[in-house]
Amino acid sequence: MSSITVCARFRPLSSKEKRDHNDSICIHILDAGTLIFKDEKEEDHLFCFDRVFCQESEQSDVYEFLALPIIQDAVNAINGTILTYGQTGAGKTYSMEGPNILEGNEKKKGLLPRVVEGLFDCLRSSEKVYTVKLSMVEIYMEKVRDLFDLSKDNLQIKEDKIQGIYLSGVTEVSVLDPEEALQNLCNGIANRAVGETQMNMASSRSHCVYIFTIQQECTGERRLKTGKIILVDLAGSEKVEKTGAEGKVLEEAKTINKSLSALGNVINALTSGTPGKANHIPYRDSKLTRILQDALGGNSRTALLCCCSPSTLNASESLSTLRFGARAKHIKTSPRANYNRDKCEKKQLDLDICPVKDELYEMILKKLREKLEAEDVKLLEELFKIEGIFSDLSSAEEIESAYEDVTFRTVSSLHQALDELTRTVDKLKRENKDLEAKLVETERVIGVHRDNANEGVHFLDKILSVISLFMSMLLVCLTLEKMLR
Ligand SMILES: Nc1ncnc2c1ncn2[C@@H]1O[C@H](COP(=O)(O)OP(=O)(O)O)[C@@H](O)[C@H]1O
Ligand SMILES: [Mg+2]
Prior knowledge:
InterPro entries: Kinesin-like_fam, Kinesin_motor_CS, Kinesin_motor_dom, Kinesin_motor_dom_sf, P-loop_NTPase
Shape: elongated
Order of helices and strands: EEHEEEEHEHHEEEEEHEEHHHEHEEHHHH
Distance between the termini: 35 Å
Protein name: Kinesin-like protein
Bound molecules: adenosine-5'-diphosphate, magnesium ion
Low-confidence stretches: 341-357, 387-405
Mean pLDDT: 80
CATH superfamily of the largest domain: Kinesin motor domain
Number of domains: 2
Family: Belongs to the TRAFAC class myosin-kinesin ATPase superfamily. Kinesin family. KIN-1 subfamily.
CATH class of the largest domain: Alpha Beta
Largest sheet: 10 strands, mixed
Number of helices: 13
Pfam families: Kinesin
Keywords: ATP-binding, Coiled coil, Membrane, Microtubule, Motor protein, Nucleotide-binding, Transmembrane, Transmembrane helix
């Protein structure tokens, strides 16, 4: 289990804040991770985070502390999520994208272009083969829109054992270098802007989700390692009443607030349950929390950047953002490496795996031939074929489990045969005893009776042959069991 990395970031005062509030600020940063916040009633609140970024902090500081460890993990197939949270105008998009994603201003560029460059740097320095895919969606009014294909305006969120939570049918663009990735991100952001003018929607009213899927082929291990980096620029967390919204805008704001409250509820549920006891986490209450299910308490290393204004003008919103961050700090997640394969790659792997399948098949038969009679090996080979054990193996794990499976099935069917033989022998013994008694009786009454004596000899022969068969089966069973253990 690991806890979420939570940081607070305060942007410089805006010109409006300077003008209206005379440079008055509500924070006092004590050290790298601690700050004192003065609320509207002049009361002090102490907050401890993993890091506090002050107004003078650089974009590169945020990247190095928050994103770099997540990139390194994702390359090793451990999922990572970075969220920016805070009221509109607090610096979420500035932290995430910077002033312009393609501008390439070394000092000002945000997490997104830095993650792209850092990721490709990391991949270039590795000797392994990777593919990087990119998706971009926006959650607006509880609908997930594909920003690489606007015709997909209501993507469904699904879950499977291997992939975890995923967006069914989302466009995934393969990118070969940072330039291609940035160009695609730029197109996605532009599509977001098209949506804004058409639907009169401000970017602060929707959540924007950037998904990088990094897949590494492990030829030695015969499986694929997949890591995901999800960056989320959340919608503004301000209260509806404060914005003076009306009509449709009010409805929008309510929906946004609903999904952010759902996020808050999930965080509350995750942090307030009895330790060791599973309590209900309302992930399904909103699209946002469902998409973030793995990031919040699941299979992901997660970082939260709480963006705030330092001005006393926005004290109450900043305080609620910092409280949100303090609460989230208690969430525990369980990041682990992901191994999987997709359909087309599975086909390729199947082809690769064939020689291994034959090798293993031959190896088992060779071992059996060393210990057993040719006839018995042939019988076992037949059994393998009937069971279809070797017909559809496509990974090292499946071969291993098939090997165990065939061992188990062969040994258990031999045990069954032994049981049957034992029962038959017991029955024959009983019949023979009866016969002997009858023979003794006959001899006593009328002397030696040839027919009965012959019958007795015949039965004794039968018993002896069954016992010898029984012994040889027992030998086969024991040798096989010893050998396959
Ligand atoms: N750390 C910062 N340094 C300089 N300017 C910033 C910083 N954070 C935000 N800003 C500026 O503040 C304004 C609002 O920021 P923005 O990122 O758009 O807010 P949000 O996405 O939270 O609504 C923008 O003009 C942005 O350039
Ligand atoms: Mg924004």
